[in-house]
């Protein structure tokens, strides 16, 4: 089939949406389809919201592709008789983040009306799709709540050439993700200071704001645990990730209320390591259950420390949970076969 | 620097311009900058949809970008503070093709308005640009004639000169490139009948249609040239093309009235091979200094046969002329270094 | 709600007077209103209406923040650049509801051009109208505009295009405004503040000798059809003897002479008063028994005189056309536009004989005018329109983006290539 993958992007900003586009394209091509990626620039500046949406609307792929898979808003405004949406998130500042500090404008009758116009248009454009998929239960619920649209969950997998590794697990818990306040690496350092075991931490990933990684270092020093923490403020390649995870006995991933379970969770599953997360981490909980395939605890240093020690001391259980996590991924059909079958169905 | 290269896109079609755009991005990255390719779907049918697409291009916001290099209509309508146009071609249907009676734009009030709109919108975008480069003198001439904008000619360089290092001649004349009526490989076969028995011809490249293949095969059959012509009609890898060119005695490239120098001729010159072309081949003639590095003859089987005989006569002569080809070519300084120096200035 | 008003604030400005009335009502309705003065020259405090004393000047750096925090932005727009410089500057950025006090804004464009924006104004004039600014400005010469049937453009398009909604005060040239913008356009009666004093008098108004006074006031020009009235009054002896005609308002010498001569020939008692002060006008109104507000043809917005007459509870004669058709039949005396002469004769005759009962109708007129041409309904409607406009925000953003780009390309007639936006606009409804 001729498949067009349509998405929006900000030049030179990578991230989940761009990965999905690239990985999906590769997987479709492996299965013999012809793929074209249609990526259009989009700015979240409120003044330009509607004119940009109108611009997307001029894209008509009816005669070019057999199917158009739309990912990031406002990609699904394009025209195609077979529009399939794999919905990963709203323009959230006009939805669930309207009442938060992330809202981009003041809250007035005018800006509320703009918000409502957008919601109506989103609903209408999404209504044109032949199938609607979402990347997590959380996002599906939000889509239902705000746009009254039913959807099917299609979990985004890792790229298939992402290799596993089978080193012996050491004494480390690894957290590989952007170094960011919302990812809460600092909480783990707090917890580390309360642990009774010899557990060590590796925190690796690019800090969007360098001051956060500085803060992490200083925090570790203040608590006297700097010799047990490795902080690597840099982008980590897929191969390195696999090696790092393989040489640890557990993976930590505890962001604040994220929509999706996050690729780190899948990366852990691939190497069969359990995941340590928090009750308020959001989408991770669709995959990880406390005691089954990882630990889900209160986001407090005490609770995290206890869990870290448990994982450290009971290696057999940790290993068992790691295998269980890998199994969970299969159970949830998190695979490209499932994705492509769903999208093209 | 963050550089966005913008081209338009006809989904699933891939040609020289697309290849160039990808190479440009790659070369910019090799120079240490960040570069992204932006490909925007564009439909020229139906004509009624043109204005909306043009307006859409002006409505898009390109953030987080230091430089924009735009290659074609309507990609160069994108707004950016530092926009450079490397014009591969305008919307010729509004200009020279219209004058030649070959445009799909109707000769109606609407058609006139569209042409006026394009001219004015083009003027606005060219005004907005810091620099205007074109890919050939013909493009520059047209730009001046129709829009009264001056421009600097910046020839697209070879994408992979490393494949054309030259080598020992194996005694054949090589005709590369796409095989179709406009490229006139058939004429070379006919010319063979007027050339000395020494002359051997190799035609290698993807045929545009089965009819193009059949024509060559039939001509060879009709003229009894089986022993003297090798046909390798398929899409070849760059290494395979390089191999053919590097071991040729001389190269023949006789398209009908092409604007550009022709990659086939450029490859020949890079590899240090003499070039045979015709008086009506257009830009290719810029690659040949008659008597020095090649032949420019009438597009007849007799004249071409004579040139091919002369080219095959002496190995020493061929080598000498080939050396001149390379020197001439080098002197034109059509390199990626120079190109980037100009584009990023 | 927080309402931000861009308006002139000076004592001399009639528009500032209207703003004052409406703002007073908005505040009475519980809204918080902030004022931005749009006057070209920062007004001295003594020249500013006391109600607007805490205005913010349009050049103040805090204005953008006020815009960002407003639930409603309202622009009072007229043709004078001296009074509306701030509207020209801010409307494109703030958007909002535009109350259009003058249809023709060529003078405003000219003023803006002269104030250091020549190049931009030139571009606007060329791209919208294919004309020079000078040409547009010259169009405003009174005789030109009156004589011409409305041209294709009202020359307000370059401003109106930025509005989220337009309030007009009569339906003159409404079609042009509708063509210039996709935003909702509504005609609202202009709030009017008539100081009615039935005891007003002036020694110059001489005794009637038993006649009933027919009054026509405002600029006395061809359009007011004074000659038609004179002719109708002379139709029979009774009317001629029972009525007298008073013309109050500026009148050209030629017109005065020709009307005087006509009245003499026709035997009609005519007094041409000419231009007067507000006090004298009150006295004339108090003195009048019947007001004639005919407009032939109905070219200009003459609502002010009819409204005034109604507020004075005077029996009012109008032509059944344009704005006047909207007045309820039991408030005024309408004559059919095609049969003015005949119907006027009949009406005046009945008036003279006393067979036409006009007291009740005049009372209805007063009640109707007091309920309609007043600030509370204007203010309430303004707020409602703002709500509707907000709902159409997305559509107007899109139409505006298209119009702006097509305008920048300076097409002679953008409608030919303008794409059909229904498909995209429909998604937002």
Task: For the structure shown, list the relevant keywords.
heterotrimer, A: 345 residues, Rossmann fold, six-stranded parallel beta sheet, globular, B: 345 residues, alpha/beta, 2 domains
Average pLDDT confidence of chain B is 94
Distance from first to last alpha carbon of chain C: 24 Å
Largest sheet of chain C: 7 strands, parallel
Count all strands of chain B and give the number.
Answer: 12
What does this structure look like?
The complex is a heterotrimer of chains A (345), B (345) and C (429). The two termini of chain A are 12 Å apart. In chain A, the strands form two sheets. In chain A, strands 2-1-3-4-5-6 form a six-stranded parallel sheet. Chain A contains eleven helices and twelve strands. Chain A has 345 residues and is an alpha/beta fold. By secondary structure, chain B is α/β, with parallel strands linked by helices. Chain B has two domains: 153 residues, Rossmann fold, CATH 3.40.50; 172 residues, Glycogen Phosphorylase B (Rossmann fold), CATH 3.40.50.2000. Helices cover 40% and strands 18% of the residues of chain B. In chain B, helix 9 packs across helix 11. The longest helix of chain B is centred in the middle third of the chain and has 20 residues. The mean pLDDT of chain B is 94. Chain C has 21 helices and 13 strands. In chain C, helix 15 links the parallel strand 12 and strand 13. In chain C, helix 4 runs antiparallel to helix 5 and helix 14 crosses helix 17. The two termini of chain C are 24 Å apart. The interface between A and B is medium-sized, with 30 and 26 residues.
Write a brief caption for the model.
The complex is a heterotrimer of chains A (345), B (345) and C (429). By secondary structure, chain A is α/β, with parallel strands linked by helices.
């Amino acid at each position: 089939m001729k498949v067009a993958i349509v998405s929006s992007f900000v030049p030179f900003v990578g991230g989940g949406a761009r990965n999905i586009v690239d990985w999906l394209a590769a997987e479709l091509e492996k299965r013999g389809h012809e793929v074209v990626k249609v990526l259009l620039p989009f700015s979240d500046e409120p003044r330009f919201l509607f004119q940009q949406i109108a611009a997307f609307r001029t894209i008509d792929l009816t005669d070019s592709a057999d199917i158009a898979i739309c990912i990031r808003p406002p990609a699904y405004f394009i025209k195609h008789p077979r529009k399939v949406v794999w919905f990963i998130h709203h323009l959230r500042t006009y939805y669930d983040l309207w009442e938060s500090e992330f809202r981009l404008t003041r809250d007035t009758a005018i800006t509320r009306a703009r918000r409502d116009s957008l919601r109506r248009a989103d609903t209408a454009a999404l209504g044109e799709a032949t199938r609607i998929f979402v990347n997590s239960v959380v996002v599906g619920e939000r889509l239902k709540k705000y746009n009254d649209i039913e959807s099917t969950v299609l979990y985004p997998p890792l790229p298939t050439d992402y290799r596993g590794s089978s080193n012996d697990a050491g004494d480390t818990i690894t957290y590989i993700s952007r170094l960011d306040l919302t990812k809460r690496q600092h909480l783990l350092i707090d917890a580390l200071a309360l642990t009774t075991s010899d557990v060590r931490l590796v925190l690796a990933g690019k800090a969007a704001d360098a001051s956060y990684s500085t803060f992490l270092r200083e925090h570790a020093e203040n608590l006297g645990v700097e010799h047990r923490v490795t902080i690597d403020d840099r982008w980590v390649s897929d191969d390195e990730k696999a090696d790092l995870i393989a040489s640890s006995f557990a993976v930590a991933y505890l962001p604040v209320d994220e929509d999706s379970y996050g690729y780190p969770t899948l990366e852990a599953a691939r190497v069969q390591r359990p995941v340590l997360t928090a009750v308020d981490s959001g989408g991770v909980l669709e995959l990880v259950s406390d005691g089954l395939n990882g630990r889900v605890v209160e986001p407090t240093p005490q609770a995290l420390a206890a869990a870290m020690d448990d994982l450290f001391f009971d290696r057999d259980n940790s290993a068992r949970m790691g295998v269980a996590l890998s199994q969970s991924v299969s159970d949830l059909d998190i695979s490209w076969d499932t994705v492509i079958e769903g999208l093209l169905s | 620097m963050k550089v966005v290269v913008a081209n338009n896109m006809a989904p699933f079609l891939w040609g020289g311009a697309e290849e160039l755009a990808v190479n440009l991005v790659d070369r910019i990255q090799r120079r240490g900058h960040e570069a992204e390719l932006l490909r925007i779907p564009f439909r020229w049918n139906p004509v009624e949809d043109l204005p909306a697409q043009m307006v859409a291009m002006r409505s898009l916001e390109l953030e987080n970008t230091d430089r924009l290099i735009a290659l074609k209509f309507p990609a160069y309508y994108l707004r950016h503070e530092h926009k450079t146009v490397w014009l591969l071609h305008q919307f010729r249907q509004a200009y020279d093709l219209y004058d030649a009676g070959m445009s799909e734009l109707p000769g109606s009030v609407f058609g006139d308005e569209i042409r006026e709109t394009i001219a004015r919108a083009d003027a606005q975008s060219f005004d907005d640009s810091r620099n205007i480069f074109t890919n050939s003198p013909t493009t520059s001439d047209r730009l001046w004639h129709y829009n009264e904008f001056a421009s600097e000619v910046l020839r697209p360089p070879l994408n992979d000169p490393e494949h054309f290092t030259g080598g020992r001649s194996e005694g054949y004349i090589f005709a590369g490139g796409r095989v179709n009526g406009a490229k006139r490989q058939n004429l070379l076969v006919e010319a063979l009948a007027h050339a000395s028995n020494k002359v051997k011809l190799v035609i290698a490249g993807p045929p545009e249609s089965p009819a193009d293949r059949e024509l060559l095969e039939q001509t060879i059959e009709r003229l009894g040239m089986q022993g003297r012509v090798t046909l390798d009609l398929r899409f070849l890898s760059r290494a395979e093309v390089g191999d053919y060119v590097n071991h040729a005695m001389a190269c023949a490239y006789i398209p009908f009235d092409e604007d550009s120098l022709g990659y086939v001729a450029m490859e020949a010159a890079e590899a240090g091979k003499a070039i045979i072309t015709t008086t009506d081949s257009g830009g290719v003639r810029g690659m040949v200094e008659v008597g020095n590095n090649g032949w420019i003859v009438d597009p007849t089987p007799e004249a071409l046969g004579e040139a091919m005989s002369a080219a095959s006569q002496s190995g020493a002569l061929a080598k000498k002329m080939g050396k001149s080809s390379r020197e001439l070519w080098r002197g034109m300084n059509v390199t990626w270094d120079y190109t980037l120096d100009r584009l990023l200035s | 709600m927080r309402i931000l008003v861009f308006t002139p604030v000076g004592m001399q400005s009639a528009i500032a007077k209207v703003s004052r009335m409406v703002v007073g009502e908005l505040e009475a309705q519980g809204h918080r209103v902030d004022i931005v003065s749009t006057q070209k020259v920062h007004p001295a405090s003594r020249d500013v209406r006391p109600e607007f004393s805490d205005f913010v000047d349009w050049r103040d750096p805090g204005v953008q923040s006020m815009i960002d925090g407003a639930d409603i932005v309202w622009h009072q727009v007229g043709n004078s650049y001296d009074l509306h410089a701030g509207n020209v500057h801010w409307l494109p950025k703030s958007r909002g509801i535009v109350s259009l006090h003058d249809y023709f804004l060529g003078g405003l464009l000219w003023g803006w051009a002269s104030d250091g924006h020549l190049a931009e104004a030139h571009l606007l004039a060329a791209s919208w109208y294919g004309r020079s600014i000078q040409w547009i400005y010259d169009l405003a010469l009174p005789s030109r505009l009156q004589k011409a049937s409305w041209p294709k453009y009202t020359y307000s398009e370059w401003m109106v295009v930025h509005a989220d909604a337009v309030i007009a005060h009569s339906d003159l040239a409404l079609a042009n405004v509708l063509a210039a913008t996709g935003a909702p356009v509504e005609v609202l009666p202009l709030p009017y503040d008539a100081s009615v004093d039935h005891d007003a008098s002036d020694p110059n108004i001489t005794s009637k000798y038993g006649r009933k006074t027919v009054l026509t006031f405002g600029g006395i020009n061809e359009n007011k059809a004074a000659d038609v009235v004179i002719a109708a009054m002379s139709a029979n002896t009774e009317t001629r003897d029972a009525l007298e005609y008073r013309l109050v308002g500026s009148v050209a010498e030629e017109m005065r002479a020709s009307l005087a001569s006509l009245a003499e020939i026709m035997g009609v008692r005519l007094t041409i008063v000419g231009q007067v002060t507000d006090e004298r006008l009150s006295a004339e109104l108090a003195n009048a028994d019947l007001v004639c507000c005919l407009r032939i043809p109905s070219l200009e917005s003459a609502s002010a005189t009819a409204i005034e007459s109604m507020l004075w509870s005077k029996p009012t004669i109008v032509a059944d056309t344009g704005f006047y058709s909207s007045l309820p039949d039991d408030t005024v005396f309408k004559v059919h536009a095609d049969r003015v002469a005949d119907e006027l004769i009949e009406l005046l005759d009945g008036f003279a004989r006393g067979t036409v009962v006009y007291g009740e109708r005049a009372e209805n007129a007063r009640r109707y005018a007091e309920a309609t041409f007043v600030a509370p309904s204007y203010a309430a409607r303004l707020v409602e329109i703002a709500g509707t406009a907000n709902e159409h925000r997305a559509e107007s953003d899109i139409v505006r983006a298209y119009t702006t780009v097509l305008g920048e390309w300076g097409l002679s007639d953008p409608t030919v290539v303008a794409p059909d936006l229904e498909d995209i606009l429909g998604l937002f409804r």
